[in-house]
Amino acid sequence: MVDFEVVRVFCGPDGRYGNPLGVVRDGSSVPSREGRQRVAADLGFSETVFVDDALRGVIDIYTPTLRLPFAGHPCVGAAWLLDVPELVTPAGTVACRRDGDVAWIAARSAWAPARILRAYTSAAEIDALSVPPPGEWIYAWAWSDEAAGVVRARAFPGRNDGIEEDEATGAAALLLTADLGRSLDVRQGRGSRIVTHLAGDGMIEVGGTVRR
């Protein structure tokens, strides 16, 4: 098994929860896409990042079953871990900034993989949801406090790859922000937190607390 480390991305206000991210700092130890896909499947995280150039921030992202040109929680985690001004992904160059345990990225919603944004009428409805059958990638959400921009959300990838529910998904929060046209404070999963800001020129900032 290759060397890797784990960070938790989008931790809650109390420092708990967050979505675990596998990071292979020495991407050259797994040079092929096929090999990286096998490693990502073996590790079993919702995403695993391979760092191909730590100084330039060049990264490669995989779920257990597929390669992603861009994803939110891997980029935020890599931005915090590498502490670089930008990340280079197949989708585009992602601007980054870090303030202690909080990391931010700026990206375009067009870079995010497609998700079904399914609105519900209350946070209680979101809490009561069961995991749906595989098939559709569903981001279920409802307002907790619409005036304040606070959202309750849960994510169901529907890929039949062992990840029934994603604890915190930055790309889905980015898509929801673009769809609603406003900055959001998303409380997802068991206790994770994702914050988004409209940054102008079509860019959206996504940020959160990262812990080892």
TrEMBL record:
Which InterPro entries does this chain map to? Phenazine_PhzF-like (IPR003719)
Q: Which Pfam families match?
A: PhzC-PhzF
Q: Which Gene3D superfamilies match?
A: Diaminopimelate Epimerase, Chain A, domain 1
Its domain of life reads Bacteria
Native source organism of the sequence: Actinomadura parmotrematis
State the name under which the record lists this protein.
PhzF family phenazine biosynthesis protein
